[in-house]
Amino acid sequence: MKILSIVGARPQFVKLAPIAHAAAAAGHEHVIVHTGQHYDVKMSDVFFEDLDIPTPNVHLGVGSGSHGVQTGAMLAAMDAVLEEHAPDWVLVYGDTNSTIAGALSAVKLHFPLAHLEAGLRSFNRAMPEEHNRVLTDHAADLCLAPTSVAMEHLAAEGLSASSVLVGDVMTDVCLKVSESVGDRRPALPDGVDGDYVLSTIHRAENTDDETRLRAIIEGLAALPYPVVLTAHPRLVARAAHYGIDLRAGSLHTIEPLDYPAMVAAVKAARAVVTDSGGLQKEAFLLRTPCTTVRTETEWTETIDLGWNVLALDLDRLAEIVDRPAPAPTDAAPYGDGRAAEATVQALEKAHLAR
Ligand code: UD1
Fold first, then answer.
1. Nearest atom (ligand 1) to Cα of 39
2. Which residue ranges does the record assign to the UDP-N-acetylglucosamine 2-epimerase domain (predicted)?
3. Which helix (H) or strand (E) holds 30?
4. Concatenated DSSP letters for 300-329?
5. Which residue's CA is the nearest one to ligand 1's atom 4?
6. Does 202 qualify as catalytic in the annotation?
7. Which atom of ligand 1 is nearest the CA belonging to 132?
8. Domain residues for 114?
9. Contact (Cβ atoms closer than 8 angstroms) between residue 1 and residue 347
């Protein structure tokens, strides 16, 4: 069986790692296409090195641009790649512009499409990611869902027949890397010792709204602990544009961390404050309380289990972050760390059934 994975943004490299290893272990041919959506060394290359992912077979070199320009450039480049490799499966990941571009290319050329991390919903139609995931699920021949909540969303949209629960592949990576980093305290900026808060902010709904971004950054800067802010290029660019100081008060702004350093930094942190999807889940897996700077989340299990709280009122950010510790839990809503194996088996089964 020949699987062709399309990835382009940082969280997709993390999800690709266990799939690449599971596909190789099962003896399948695996072609990796990197769209180039994320291109900085710290946003891309280090993930391939640290997570031992084979070098992409194809790099589309698309880079940044408006949604239309970025997605359109990927679509235009993809036709020839799919025709050349003629895969048994095109596998797309998550909810980025690389996901929707890969999905559209595959279905228009009649290559079977599978969507990993299917069925996640924020029900916020102002998010570009929500459209990317809904449209991709409906285009896909196979929806690979990470959780039973995701399966329920797929069922509610009439997609049960094409859906399989495989577990969450980010959990595979996170648990494995957590084991290898152990209790190692990460290298942190000068002035950060003892308790600290780890933060990432990058979503368009936060970075592209000046009032909201100012409130978030001021809230973080006023926390009574050092805040290690690992800054996504979009945050740096928007903050500079609005004249918002990313080094004010408690803030210690650093460049994006590689994956093992990020896992170590989450484990050692007193709390996480983020608008990332993946990081909310990683904080839960590593049992660090998380505060999410959004009005909703796709990973509702983290909220239900008490390890994640939505900061709906930014004026109360400090109080929310500094809340009492949640009750310990053994719950494992994201699977047992073997989702990639289950994914490859689901692909094999659906391929044989065709
Ligand atoms: C994208 C995804 C989002 C995902 C995130 C992970 C979409 C619609 N959004 O958002 O779902 O959570 O990736 O990070 O696809 N840039 C650089 N260097 C890089 C990458 C980006 O400088 O390596 C800059 C570019 O100027 C770009 C901006 O960051 O304009 C935003 O990048 P973009 O790919 O548009 O989306 P993300 O915000 O990263």
1. 23
2. 27-348
3. strand 29-34
4. HHHHHTTSEEE---GGGHHHHHTPPPPPP-
5. 96
6. yes
7. 8
8. 2-168+335-353
9. yes
pTM: predicted TM-score of the whole model, two decimal places: 0.96
| Number of domains present in the structure of the chain | 2
pLDDT means per 10 residues in the chain (354 residues)?
98 98 98 98 97 98 97 98 98 98 98 98 97 98 98 98 98 97 91 94 97 98 97 98 98 97 97 98 98 98 98 96 95 96 98 96
Q: Let me know whether 118 and 192 are in one domain.
A: no
ipTM of the complex: 0.91
Q: Ligand 1: which residues within 6 Å by Cβ? A: 9-11, 37-40, 43, 64, 95-97, 128-129, 202, 232-234, 237
pLDDT, tens digit (0-9, with 9 covering 90-100), for 137-189: 999 999 999 999 999 999 999 999 999 999 999 999 999 999 999 998 888 99
How many C-beta neighbours within 10 Å does residue 300 have? Answer: 16
Which among 34, 38, 153, 202 is annotated as catalytic? 202
199 contacts: CB under 8 Å, gap ≥ 6: 220, 227, 228, 229, 230, 272, 273, 274
Q: What's the CATH number where 199 sits? A: 3.40.50.2000
SS3 251: strand
